[in-house]
Protein backbone atom coordinates (compact mmCIF):
# COMPACT_ATOMS: atom_id res chain seq x y z
CA UNK A 1 0.00 0.00 0.00
CA UNK A 2 1.26 3.48 -0.82
CA UNK A 3 1.29 6.38 1.59
CA UNK A 4 -2.11 8.01 2.17
CA UNK A 5 -3.36 10.76 4.46
CA UNK A 6 -6.34 8.72 5.60
CA UNK A 7 -6.47 8.74 9.38
CA UNK A 8 -3.41 11.00 9.61
CA UNK A 9 -2.61 14.53 10.79
CA UNK A 10 -1.92 17.11 8.05
CA UNK A 11 -0.54 20.60 8.75
CA UNK A 12 -0.66 23.36 6.13
CA UNK A 13 0.99 26.78 6.44
CA UNK A 14 -0.50 29.75 4.63
CA UNK A 15 -3.84 27.94 4.85
CA UNK A 16 -6.02 31.05 4.98
CA UNK A 17 -6.67 31.24 1.25
CA UNK A 18 -5.47 30.27 -2.22
CA UNK A 19 -3.27 27.24 -2.58
CA UNK A 20 -3.07 26.66 1.17
CA UNK A 21 -6.82 26.37 1.46
CA UNK A 22 -6.87 23.92 -1.45
CA UNK A 23 -4.26 21.72 0.24
CA UNK A 24 -6.36 21.68 3.41
CA UNK A 25 -9.51 20.80 1.49
CA UNK A 26 -7.67 18.00 -0.33
CA UNK A 27 -6.50 16.54 2.98
CA UNK A 28 -10.02 16.60 4.39
CA UNK A 29 -11.49 14.97 1.26
CA UNK A 30 -8.96 12.16 1.42
CA UNK A 31 -9.85 11.23 4.96
CA UNK A 32 -7.31 12.97 7.16
CA UNK A 33 -8.12 12.51 10.84
CA UNK A 34 -7.05 16.08 11.60
CA UNK A 35 -6.24 19.11 9.47
CA UNK A 36 -4.12 21.78 11.14
CA UNK A 37 -4.33 25.25 9.60
CA UNK A 38 -1.65 27.90 10.10
CA UNK A 39 -1.94 31.45 8.84
CA UNK A 40 -1.13 34.97 9.97
CA UNK A 41 -4.71 36.08 9.21
CA UNK A 42 -7.14 34.86 11.86
CA UNK A 43 -10.24 36.01 10.00
CA UNK A 44 -9.22 34.10 6.88
CA UNK A 45 -8.68 31.01 9.01
CA UNK A 46 -12.22 31.29 10.33
CA UNK A 47 -13.56 31.13 6.77
CA UNK A 48 -11.54 28.01 6.01
CA UNK A 49 -12.62 26.33 9.23
CA UNK A 50 -16.25 27.07 8.36
CA UNK A 51 -15.75 25.64 4.89
CA UNK A 52 -14.38 22.39 6.33
CA UNK A 53 -17.11 22.04 8.95
CA UNK A 54 -18.93 19.33 7.01
CA UNK A 55 -15.84 17.14 6.65
CA UNK A 56 -15.15 14.20 8.95
CA UNK A 57 -11.73 15.59 9.87
CA UNK A 58 -11.19 17.55 13.04
CA UNK A 59 -9.99 21.03 12.08
CA UNK A 60 -7.58 23.03 14.22
CA UNK A 61 -6.54 26.58 13.36
CA UNK A 62 -3.68 28.63 14.76
CA UNK A 63 -2.71 32.21 14.05
CA UNK A 64 1.00 31.91 13.29
CA UNK A 65 3.51 34.33 11.82
CA UNK A 66 6.02 32.11 10.00
CA UNK A 67 8.39 35.08 9.79
CA UNK A 68 8.85 34.69 13.55
CA UNK A 69 10.75 31.76 15.04
CA UNK A 70 9.10 32.43 18.39
CA UNK A 71 5.62 32.29 16.86
CA UNK A 72 6.45 29.03 15.07
CA UNK A 73 7.86 27.39 18.18
CA UNK A 74 4.91 28.41 20.34
CA UNK A 75 2.37 27.17 17.79
CA UNK A 76 4.28 23.93 17.20
CA UNK A 77 4.27 23.22 20.91
CA UNK A 78 0.53 23.78 21.02
CA UNK A 79 -0.07 21.46 18.06
CA UNK A 80 2.04 18.69 19.57
CA UNK A 81 0.14 18.99 22.86
CA UNK A 82 -3.36 19.46 21.49
CA UNK A 83 -3.41 17.50 18.21
CA UNK A 84 -0.34 15.30 17.96
CA UNK A 85 2.65 14.80 15.71
CA UNK A 86 1.89 15.74 12.07
CA UNK A 87 2.21 13.01 9.47
CA UNK A 88 2.27 15.54 6.64
CA UNK A 89 3.76 19.03 6.60
CA UNK A 90 2.88 21.33 3.70
CA UNK A 91 5.19 24.37 3.77
CA UNK A 92 3.11 26.59 1.53
CA UNK A 93 3.23 30.07 3.12
CA UNK A 94 5.05 32.73 1.14
CA UNK A 95 5.11 36.24 -0.27
CA UNK A 96 6.39 37.84 -3.45
CA UNK A 97 7.99 41.21 -4.11
CA UNK A 98 8.22 42.08 -7.80
CA UNK A 99 10.49 45.08 -8.43
CA UNK A 100 14.06 45.97 -9.26
CA UNK A 101 16.48 44.99 -6.50
CA UNK A 102 17.40 48.57 -5.64
CA UNK A 103 13.72 49.37 -5.09
CA UNK A 104 13.40 46.75 -2.33
CA UNK A 105 13.10 48.04 1.20
CA UNK A 106 15.59 46.48 3.61
CA UNK A 107 12.95 45.30 6.06
CA UNK A 108 9.56 45.17 4.34
CA UNK A 109 10.92 43.44 1.24
CA UNK A 110 14.34 41.80 1.61
CA UNK A 111 14.27 40.71 5.23
CA UNK A 112 10.59 39.78 5.26
CA UNK A 113 10.77 37.73 2.06
CA UNK A 114 13.72 35.72 3.33
CA UNK A 115 12.17 35.18 6.75
CA UNK A 116 8.87 33.93 5.34
CA UNK A 117 9.90 32.13 2.15
CA UNK A 118 13.20 30.63 3.28
CA UNK A 119 13.31 30.69 7.05
CA UNK A 120 9.65 29.74 7.41
CA UNK A 121 9.83 26.24 5.90
CA UNK A 122 13.10 25.54 7.70
CA UNK A 123 11.88 26.59 11.13
CA UNK A 124 8.47 24.94 10.75
CA UNK A 125 10.11 21.67 9.73
CA UNK A 126 12.72 21.93 12.48
CA UNK A 127 9.97 22.41 15.05
CA UNK A 128 8.23 19.14 14.15
CA UNK A 129 10.91 16.92 12.60
CA UNK A 130 12.44 15.50 15.81
CA UNK A 131 9.02 14.24 16.92
CA UNK A 132 8.33 12.83 13.45
CA UNK A 133 11.68 11.04 13.46
CA UNK A 134 11.23 9.69 16.97
CA UNK A 135 7.84 8.27 16.09
CA UNK A 136 9.47 6.35 13.23
CA UNK A 137 6.39 5.98 11.02
CA UNK A 138 6.15 7.02 7.35
CA UNK A 139 5.56 10.74 6.86
CA UNK A 140 5.75 13.38 4.16
CA UNK A 141 7.01 16.96 3.82
CA UNK A 142 6.01 19.11 0.84
CA UNK A 143 8.06 22.28 0.37
CA UNK A 144 6.70 24.84 -2.09
CA UNK A 145 9.50 26.45 -4.10
CA UNK A 146 9.28 28.05 -7.55
CA UNK A 147 10.67 27.87 -11.05
CA UNK A 148 12.14 31.27 -10.18
CA UNK A 149 14.44 29.33 -7.88
CA UNK A 150 16.03 27.63 -10.89
CA UNK A 151 16.34 30.52 -13.37
CA UNK A 152 17.22 34.16 -12.85
CA UNK A 153 14.29 36.49 -13.53
CA UNK A 154 14.56 40.30 -13.59
CA UNK A 155 12.36 42.10 -11.05
CA UNK A 156 12.35 38.96 -8.88
CA UNK A 157 15.86 38.94 -7.44
CA UNK A 158 14.91 38.64 -3.78
CA UNK A 159 12.02 36.25 -4.39
CA UNK A 160 14.20 34.12 -6.65
CA UNK A 161 16.96 34.05 -4.04
CA UNK A 162 14.51 32.90 -1.38
CA UNK A 163 13.29 30.03 -3.56
CA UNK A 164 16.78 28.99 -4.70
CA UNK A 165 17.58 28.53 -1.03
CA UNK A 166 14.43 26.48 -0.43
CA UNK A 167 15.29 24.09 -3.26
CA UNK A 168 18.81 23.51 -1.98
CA UNK A 169 17.68 23.01 1.60
CA UNK A 170 14.70 20.82 0.72
CA UNK A 171 16.68 18.43 -1.45
CA UNK A 172 19.50 18.25 1.10
CA UNK A 173 16.98 17.41 3.82
CA UNK A 174 15.55 14.66 1.62
CA UNK A 175 18.98 13.08 1.25
CA UNK A 176 19.77 13.40 4.95
CA UNK A 177 16.58 11.62 5.97
CA UNK A 178 17.05 8.89 3.38
CA UNK A 179 20.69 8.27 4.31
CA UNK A 180 19.84 7.94 8.01
CA UNK A 181 16.99 5.53 7.43
CA UNK A 182 14.05 7.71 8.43
CA UNK A 183 10.84 6.96 6.47
CA UNK A 184 10.05 10.62 5.85
CA UNK A 185 9.78 11.63 2.20
CA UNK A 186 10.56 15.19 1.16
CA UNK A 187 9.09 16.60 -2.05
CA UNK A 188 9.99 19.97 -3.55
CA UNK A 189 7.29 21.62 -5.67
CA UNK A 190 8.81 23.80 -8.41
CA UNK A 191 6.02 25.42 -10.43
CA UNK A 192 5.91 28.31 -12.86
CA UNK A 193 3.25 31.02 -12.50
CA UNK A 194 -0.07 29.93 -11.01
CA UNK A 195 -3.35 31.75 -11.55
CA UNK A 196 -3.96 32.72 -7.91
CA UNK A 197 -3.75 36.52 -8.01
CA UNK A 198 -0.42 36.48 -6.22
CA UNK A 199 1.30 37.06 -9.56
CA UNK A 200 -1.32 39.29 -11.13
CA UNK A 201 0.07 40.87 -14.28
CA UNK A 202 2.88 38.37 -14.74
CA UNK A 203 3.03 36.71 -18.16
CA UNK A 204 3.95 33.08 -18.62
CA UNK A 205 7.02 32.47 -20.79
CA UNK A 206 6.70 30.80 -24.21
CA UNK A 207 4.81 27.47 -23.97
CA UNK A 208 4.26 28.14 -20.25
CA UNK A 209 0.73 29.45 -19.66
CA UNK A 210 -0.42 30.39 -16.18
CA UNK A 211 -1.52 27.18 -14.49
CA UNK A 212 -4.78 26.53 -12.70
CA UNK A 213 -4.37 26.09 -8.91
CA UNK A 214 -6.44 22.90 -8.79
CA UNK A 215 -4.23 21.22 -11.39
CA UNK A 216 -1.06 22.18 -9.53
CA UNK A 217 -2.48 20.95 -6.23
CA UNK A 218 -3.43 17.62 -7.77
CA UNK A 219 0.01 16.96 -9.24
CA UNK A 220 1.87 18.22 -6.17
CA UNK A 221 -0.30 16.13 -3.86
CA UNK A 222 0.11 12.93 -5.84
CA UNK A 223 3.85 13.51 -6.15
CA UNK A 224 4.14 14.05 -2.40
CA UNK A 225 2.22 10.87 -1.56
CA UNK A 226 4.42 8.92 -3.97
CA UNK A 227 7.54 10.33 -2.34
CA UNK A 228 8.86 12.00 -5.48
CA UNK A 229 11.90 14.21 -4.93
CA UNK A 230 10.64 16.99 -7.20
CA UNK A 231 7.43 18.03 -8.93
CA UNK A 232 8.26 20.56 -11.67
CA UNK A 233 5.37 22.17 -13.52
CA UNK A 234 4.81 22.51 -16.41
CA UNK A 235 7.25 20.49 -18.52
CA UNK A 236 8.94 23.66 -19.76
CA UNK A 237 10.38 24.28 -16.27
CA UNK A 238 12.61 21.21 -16.62
CA UNK A 239 13.40 22.19 -20.21
CA UNK A 240 14.50 25.65 -19.15
CA UNK A 241 16.75 24.28 -16.41
CA UNK A 242 18.34 21.83 -18.83
CA UNK A 243 19.00 24.46 -21.48
CA UNK A 244 20.39 26.85 -18.87
CA UNK A 245 22.96 24.24 -17.88
CA UNK A 246 23.87 23.28 -21.44
CA UNK A 247 24.11 26.65 -23.19
CA UNK A 248 26.85 29.25 -22.74
CA UNK A 249 25.61 32.22 -20.71
CA UNK A 250 25.40 34.70 -23.63
CA UNK A 251 23.44 32.20 -25.70
CA UNK A 252 21.11 31.38 -22.83
CA UNK A 253 20.45 35.07 -22.23
CA UNK A 254 19.28 35.39 -25.82
CA UNK A 255 17.13 32.25 -25.64
CA UNK A 256 15.60 33.19 -22.27
CA UNK A 257 15.14 36.84 -23.14
CA UNK A 258 14.06 36.82 -26.78
CA UNK A 259 12.72 33.33 -27.43
CA UNK A 260 11.10 32.12 -24.20
CA UNK A 261 10.56 35.67 -22.84
CA UNK A 262 11.47 34.57 -19.32
CA UNK A 263 13.29 37.84 -18.67
CA UNK A 264 10.23 39.95 -19.48
CA UNK A 265 7.67 37.81 -17.66
CA UNK A 266 7.42 40.26 -14.73
CA UNK A 267 7.36 43.47 -16.77
CA UNK A 268 3.62 43.98 -16.17
CA UNK A 269 3.47 42.50 -12.69
CA UNK A 270 1.06 44.26 -10.32
CA UNK A 271 0.32 41.65 -7.65
CA UNK A 272 -2.90 41.83 -5.71
CA UNK A 273 -4.72 45.16 -5.52
CA UNK A 274 -3.66 47.51 -2.76
CA UNK A 275 -5.19 46.45 0.54
CA UNK A 276 -5.78 42.86 -0.52
CA UNK A 277 -4.22 40.18 1.70
CA UNK A 278 -0.98 38.83 0.26
CA UNK A 279 1.38 37.64 2.96
CA UNK A 280 1.76 34.01 3.92
CA UNK A 281 -1.16 32.78 1.88
CA UNK A 282 -0.52 31.14 -1.47
CA UNK A 283 3.12 30.94 -2.44
CA UNK A 284 4.17 29.30 -5.67
Describe this structure in words.
- There is one protein chain.
- With 284 residues, the protein is of the alpha/beta class.
- It is built from 8 helices and 7 strands, in the order E-H-E-H-E-H-E-H-E-H-E-H-E-H-H.
- The protein has helices spanning 18-29, 42-51, 69-82, 106-135, 157-179, 213-226, 235-246, 249-259, and strands spanning 9-13, 34-39, 58-63, 88-91, 139-144, 184-191, 230-233.
- The chain has a 7-stranded parallel β-sheet with strand order 3-2-1-4-5-6-7, with helices on both faces.
- The chain is globular, with a radius of gyration of 18 Å.
Give the SSE order as H and E letters. Answer: EHEHEHEHEHEHEHH
Largest sheet report? 7 strands, parallel
Radius of gyration (CA) equals: 18 Å
Helix content bin:
40-55%
- Category by helix and strand content: alpha/beta
Number of strands: 7
Kindly estimate the percentage of residues that lie in beta strands according to DSSP.
5-15%
Helix count, per DSSP? 8
Give the uncertain stretches in residue-range form: 274-279
What is the molecular shape?
globular
**First and last CA, distance:** 30 Å
Summarize model confidence as the mean pLDDT.
91
Strand order of the largest sheet: 3-2-1-4-5-6-7
